[in-house]
Amino acid sequence: MPVAHVTFGTNDLERGAHFYDAIMAEFGGDRTFAHDKAIGWSFPDGGPSIGITYPFDGEPANRGNGTMFALMAAGEDMVRRVHAAALAHGGSCEGPPGPRANGFYAAYFRDPDGNKMNAFCMPETP
């Protein structure tokens, strides 16, 4: 069964929107909904959408330890652009762009609320 969406909790919807607007723009994605408690984005070619929301229970949002959302990029240049956009819009680096031991190219980062993500691609063939 395909994944429909992933949602991250946020403590600052405006700050999170600034971050996700920037990284989703690198994929050609757009906001698909927004209201006073949540915002969502979709990719132009489908796949799971991304949302941020204030937690329903009213408690502060916190990150899931060991949780990560991976975004497949079109190539190494896109991985670098997504990582740069993340850092320029309030994210933090968890691993710079580069080849990884298991054969793919990736960059790791956290959103402003500490949720871990990566942008990756498979090796480019000559």
TrEMBL record:
Single GO molecular function: lyase activity
Protein name: Lactoylglutathione lyase
SUPFAM superfamilies from the UniProt entry: Glyoxalase/Bleomycin resistance protein/Dihydroxybiphenyl dioxygenase (SSF54593)
Signal sequence bounds: none
Pfam name, any one: Glyoxalase
Keywords in alphabetical order: Lyase
Domain VOC: 2-122
Entry keyword annotation includes Lyase: yes
